[in-house]
Amino acid sequence: MADSALAAPITSAERTTQRARHAAMVRVTHWVAALCFFGLLVTGLEIVVSHPRFYWGETGNDLTKPLFQIPIPASRQLVPTAYDYVLPDENGWSRALHFQSAWAVVITGLAYVLFGLLTGHFRRNLLPHRADVSGGALRAAIADHLRFKRPGEAEAWSYNVLQRLSYLLVVFVVFPVMIWTGLAMSPAVVSAFPGLVTTLGGQQSARTIHFFLTWILVLFVVVHVMMICLAGFRRRTRAMITGRVAAEGERG
Amino acid sequence: MGLGIGAAAGISGLAVADRIARRYGLIPPDHSGLYGPGETLTYAAHRLLTRHSMAREFSWSAISNPPFANGAAPKDPAFLRLQAGGFADWRLQVDGMAAHPVSFSLGDLKSLPMRSQITQLQCEEGWSFIAEWIGVPLSDVLETAGILPQAKFVVYQSLQEGVWDSVDMTDALHPQTLVTYGMNGGELPVGNGGPLRLRVPRQLGYKSVKYLTRLTVTDDITKFGKGRGSAASEEGYAWYAGM
User: Fold this and answer.
1) End-to-end CA distance of chain B
2) A191 neighbourhood in chain B, CB within 8 Å
3) Under the phi-then-psi rule, with left for phi > 0, alpha for psi from -120 to 50, and beta for the rest, what region is A46?
4) Strand B91-96 vs strand B212-218: parallel, antiparallel, or unpaired?
5) What is the pLDDT of residues B152-203, one digit of tens each?
6) Where are the alpha helices (DSSP H) in B24-69?
7) Are the Cβ atoms of B123 and A97 closer than 8 angstroms?
8) d(Cα B180, Cα B154) in Å, to the nearest integer?
9) Chain B closest-CA separation from residue A211 CA (Å)
10) Which residues of A are less than 8 Å from B237 in CB distance?
11) pLDDT tens, residue by residue, B59-110
12) Cβ neighbours of A85 (radius 10 Å)
């Protein structure tokens, strides 16, 4: 009797200071995807170094006028750059790691999307509330973000409207188009599914779009990490690792 | 609990997948090592989805002008000697699991039914060009030599020291896989691999080996080089380059 009287306040205190925030599936897929993205980014940039010129349409090579050229030295002798030296060629492992990371992130992404649809995670946690996407509310949210206003306590428990919109955009638009443009560069895949590349205007267009989307994703990650720092890096990161949020004041 | 069931299902799923993959030839020669899983997934997926598909072909107006050659002619004395003789002594030897191993001259190859296609050559570096490729289907060359039904791979060698590669029978017998001796209505330029180049249009450019001298039909790819199917894969490049 005395024991339970003593124990009760402790458990209820625990419940109020340590509440469930992220499902295990969300946490695991988040970190696997983060790791894959890092691998894809580094190897993708390395592959670009072997031919830092971009084109539009079906074909492009050293004799073609590029759409634009990145002012860096190349890892191959033939590419006309403004530099008189050639970087080491690291394409072998870069390509292997790029495609292996792509497989890992696609499988992880499919698991996450399936989970999100089946459990109502997207509907409940990512679909913005109707009131929040009205012009005034959206303008206010954007203004708060631009002023780097520190988010209120409610946001430790739920995503704000801009988070919801940007996560939905990354998961359902940028990510799928990234896979699409990647597949459109594969000669074997487009032999079976030519529409993947003809709709984009050609294989070089696919490569150029793939490159630009990389920077959209980099921008997303930079802003994402900035917002986490603003909201409290350790607390938010701990929530994404342990799945639980410590109440305010318990920030560690 | 959910994770445990998931892990168990995953492991038994992998075991079943492995048995199916071996039976249907979905395991590439470079399936081992750190990047083996990625290479295997790509090869297996492509063999399931693209086995009989045809590489995109283009119209005459799409041909890249000026034509692009990404390499200079070999400086090898043997090559220079053959070149000085107008490649009259160039030979393509076909051996291995063939009922009657043969050695073709360029003239012999040109007497076989000619095929041409306007396809894209895409380099792993990122550049590409479109050209008309003229030659004889590899399947016709192999048929002439009478390949045995146990054949699993065709290993091909360049006159260039250490340059060799291989394709599975799906690509070897594919109607667009050509032993090419011509390009854009003329002879195949030396910079593009002339006098003889294997074209595998459903894979990246590095599978289209230049200065082709020898084809070896085999049922055991592990006997060649380090057993990873190509010289390129020994340097870390994927053996299967459908991408």
Assistant:
1) 38
2) 50, 53-56, 202
3) alpha
4) parallel
5) 999 999 999 999 999 999 999 999 999 999 999 999 999 999 999 999 999 9
6) 36-50
7) no
8) 16
9) 12
10) 91-92, 95
11) 999 999 989 998 888 999 999 999 999 999 999 999 999 999 999 999 999 9
12) 7
DSSP H or E stretch at residue B117? strand B115-122
Helix (H, G, I), strand (E, B) or coil at A116: helix
Locate B93 and state its tokens. Answer: 């030897």
Apex CA B16: angle with CA B239 and CA A193, to 5°? 50
A250 or A239: which carries more pLDDT confidence? A239
User: In angstroms, what separates the C-alpha of B130 from chain A's closest C-alpha?
Assistant: 7
Return the structure tokens found at B107: 């003239």
Q: How many CB atoms lie within 10 A of CB B128?
A: 26
- Distance between CA B45 and CA B20 in Å, rounded? 13
Distance CA B243, CA B238 (A): 8
| Tokens, residue A241 | 């690792």
The Cα–Cα gap between B123 and B15 comes to: 35
Q: Find the helix packing angle between A91-119 and A175-184, rounded to 10°.
A: 140
What whole-number distance in Å separates Cα of residue A21 and Cα of residue A231?
Answer: 15
Query: Which residues have a Cβ under 8 Å from the Cβ of B226 and sit 6 or more positions away?
Result: B234
Question: From CA A197, how far away is CA A206, in angstroms rounded?
Answer: 7
| Cis status, amide bond into B195, omega within 30 of 0 | yes
Omega before B66 within 30 of 0, i.e. cis: yes
Distances (CA, A) of B208 to A112, A148, A188, B171, B177: 39, 55, 14, 12, 9
Amino acid found at A69? Q
A23 phi, psi to nearest 5 deg: -65, 155
Residue from the list B49, B123, B236 with its beta carbon closest to the beta carbon of A192: B49
Question: How close does chain B come to A190, measured CA to CA in Å?
Answer: 7
Looking at the complex, does the CB of residue A48 fall below 8 Å from at least one CB of chain B?
A: yes
Strands B128-137 and B186-187 turn out to be: unpaired
Helix or strand holding residue A42 (H, E): helix A24-49
Q: In the CATH scheme, what is the homologous superfamily, with its name and number, of domain A20-244?
A: Transmembrane di-heme cytochromes, Chain C (1.20.950.20)
For residue B74, the SS3 value is coil
Q: Is A2 left (phi over 0), alpha (psi -120 to 50) or beta?
A: alpha
Domains and CATH numbers, chain B: 1-51 (no CATH), 54-234 (3.90.420.10)
Residue B217, strand partner residues: B96, B154
Mean per-residue pLDDT of chain A: 90
ipTM for the predicted complex: 0.92
- C-alpha angle B199-B200-B204 in degrees, rounded to nearest 5: 110
CB-closest option in B38, B41, B242 to A188? B242
